Each structure stands twice: as structure tokens, then as C-alpha cells.
């Protein structure tokens, strides 16, 4: 008997390997997937502006990455004893304007150097509700009073028009670029449940239209549907009943792996997991010759993988082995 409705995973999504250049931007769901990709020996650039929720803030951030913009103190504002950027998450804020600018510009320039070599751009939209200040959509309100902003919901056409322009420019510069769009399963309950559903619907409709405009370059991965349909139970949510639990994130990740990773990438993932499991082993006699031979075998396995896949980074694992061998 089947006790849940299965979500059909899309076919024809781009499959990539650890040597590919990846940039992930958007809600904290992008951060979760980025961390799991890093564990799988990918080298993703994840949220160079910090977590972003609405599509227009994501697109504005991407345009700044492309242009290689340099922030100055004029781009910041001082509030509650910290300097902030309305385009950035609070992780970039600091009591010093110089430090805030250093954090912002360092990340921005690092992303800029990679943007036109990307193989895949993965964007996760969280909400179509936006806050505007002096006619400009802000990425983060930094807990300023709601009265200083105008709040509204983006239309489907507004999102489609903005991203049609953005993707057209990116694809002309980089014809191999593939874009995977997702909608975050995190519910924005502050908007109210009905308003949240309308917000998600606008995002889903916009993505569908963008796929129709760029069928060879833009794809949709159903993270939203996997959580709401296959995992339709509050045990798959965190304590706030809004964010997915670690178990749910892992479930969606497993579906992502099935859909978007190549056979070589899966092999590397498995080998990497085996190495880390071996390193997590607690020896009864760490000073014994037997344990040293065990560590030597791990180093040999890493060397064989690096010979086959020179782009893999096992520096941390090798350092752990060498430190234990010297003890």
C-alpha cells in the first residue's frame, strides 16, 4: 500500500560533477543545499550577499556580482550601533563601517571572478512579498520600523520581465550556463497562510514562464512540492513548525542527488563518505602500528582519488591523517 503521493522528479535537468563551477543564491534552503554540496566535495559559492528571500533582491545581487561593484560608505546606513547594507544579510553588518565594507567587497569580488565561468546557477526564491524604501526593493530591513517601508507583493509578470532580461545577458556571455530554480518550502507565516500561498503561487508561475522562455537553460527542481506533498507531516519541520527539519533537508537533498548529479559525482561522494567514516573511527590504541597502517591506507586512497580527479580538495583529511601519524 502507498501511504503518500509521490512527486514526479523532472527529467532532463543538468547533471554536474565536482569540477563544475556552481553559484547558489536565495533563501536559507540554498544555504542548506550548498553546505551538502561542499560536503560532497563540490566547490560552490553560496550566498555572497547572505540569505536573500525575494526574487528582485536576488536578481539585483546577481547584477552586482556581474558588474563587480565596489561598495563605499555611501551605500551603508547606521542603525542600532551597527553599519548595514540594505542589500546584504546581517552577517555582513558590523560596528565599524570599514569592517562592513571589507566583508561585503571581499565576498563580492570573489563571486565576480567566477560568475562568467559558471556551469550552474541555483536560485531559491522564498517569497514574492517585498519591502521598498525610496522606491527600491531592499533585501534586508535590519529590524528597522516597518513604517519606513512600503510592502507589496510582486506580480508574476514583474518577476518574469526582470529575469528574462537578466538571464538573456548571462546566457549571451556564457552559453553553457544552466539555471536551476527552486521555491523554498519554508513558509512565511507572518504574512498569513493565505498570503503565503499566494506568494508561493506567484513564484511558481513565474518560474514556469521562465522555463518556457529559456527551455534549454532554465529548469525547475520541486523542493517545495517534496516537502509539502511527500513529507506532509509536522514531524518533518523544526520546532518553529516553519523551517524543514534536518531530516527533511536530507530527504530533499537525496532527491536532488538523484536528479542533478552525474555518475562520477556519485562515485566521488561515496568515496569521500567512506574516507570520512574511516577518519571518524575512534581507535583503541592510536599509537599502535596497526592504526598507523590504517591511516596510511586512507592517505593512499586519497592520493588515488586525487590522481583520478585532480580538482578534488582533500587537504583537511590529509592533515588529520598526518597529525595522527606524528602522535
From TrEMBL:
Any one GO molecular function term: hydrolase activity, acting on ester bonds
InterPro entries named in the record: GSCFA, SGNH_hydro_sf
Matching SUPFAM superfamilies: SGNH hydrolase
Domain GSCFA residue range list: 22-256
Designated name of the protein: GSCFA domain protein
